[in-house]
Amino acid sequence: RRASSRDMTTDATDAVATDAPSDAPSDAPRASTGDDDARARTEDDATGAADFDDATRDRVRAQIEFYLGDSNLPRDAFLLDEVSRAVREGHEGGVPIALIASFSRMRDFLAAYGGKDEAKNVERVARALEGSDVVEACADGTRVRRKSMLVNGETPDLATDDGVMAYRSAMVEELDKRFVFASPFAKDATIEALLAYFKTVGNARSIRLRRHTTSKDFRGSIFVEFATEEEAKAIAERADLEYKGAKLTLMMKAAYMEQKKQEQLEKKAKAREEAIARGEDPDAQPPTTHEPVFVGKVDERGRGGRGGQGGQGEIERVGA
């Protein structure tokens, strides 16, 4: 049996998050429209709580679509483990809405409606999922699942460890082909603003902020996921993109990772040469110290967690 873990942000990372359009109105509760919304509002008024306003409904639906979508789920060890558990236990892959509501970005959305522990919020979230092409509430209204999940035209077997690893490996390999490295950005840049910008460039699906592992400070560079490998390659070759007056450096993620690998090898070789020149044992030199960069990489052991629960958080990635 797969061990459940809450050691992992949003990451799906300190934050994995999908947001509604950046120009969406305030989260402050307001009256909804439509017969269904009116009925829901009447029910909630009896408990003294208002139903989600349109903006919050859109944000909640988009966030959950991201959590359980292909941009995030393969890399989110904690949530993938929960989906696998739900398959094994006969819930058709549906994870508890109450669990999803505990993730940090969802907590932000629900704060104006009594918070994650407000019982009515499970019903509200289930209603917010109506009309989604990606996810749906299960029959009992307390769980949410993917409507469909295909890898190379086949439904993955998430009931077994081997099936989970096969799904993760296949999807991560495919997803990495769609990522473009981009920099520089101001340290106070937000994922919402960056996603809005890259949506003007192409069909941007998600963004990962690159952060220092220890301090979690934004490094000023990101990985952007586009809809296809072809689109990502075309954008990576562009030399005309600017963000707030700064000309952007772009390259495919694989090329960037290879470049950094070579830089590290050259740095180690130089350190050896300098040690030899000083008459010191080059193999006895202390390792080069540098703070690694955290981008929400999944532990190959399949353990992970989510913002506020131990390693990753809900501010690292945002999807659309």
Give a description of the structure.
With 320 residues, this protein is α+β, with helices and mostly antiparallel strands. The protein has helices spanning 10-13, 35-45, 54-68, 77-88, 97-101, 104-110, 120-128, 161-176, 191-201, 229-236, 253-277, and strands at 16-18, 95-96, 135-137, 143-146, 179-183, 204-212, 218-226, 242-243, 246-247, 249-252, 293-294, 317-319. 38% of the residues lie in helices and 15% in strands. The strands form 3 sheets. Strands 1, 5, 6, 7, 10, 11 and 12 form a 7-stranded mixed β-sheet that branches. Strands 2-4-3 form a 3-stranded antiparallel β-sheet. β6 (204-212) and β7 form a beta hairpin. The longest helix has 25 residues, at 253-277. The chain starts with 9 loop residues before the first helix and ends with a strand.
| Helical coverage, percent range | 25-40%
Order of helices and strands: HEHHHEHHHEEHEHEEHEEEHEE
- The structure class reads alpha+beta
The rough form would be described as: globular
Beta-strand segment tally: 12
- Strand portion: 15-25%
The mean pLDDT is 79
Low-pLDDT stretches: 1-48, 291-317
The whole-angstrom Rg is 22 Å
What is the makeup of the main sheet? 7 strands, mixed
Count up the helices.
Answer: 11
Instruction: Tell me the span between the first and last alpha carbons.
Output: 33 Å
Descriptive labels:
single chain, about 325 residues, alpha+beta, 7-stranded mixed beta sheet, 3-stranded antiparallel beta sheet, 11 helices, 12 strands, about 40% helix, about 15% strand, globular, disordered N terminus
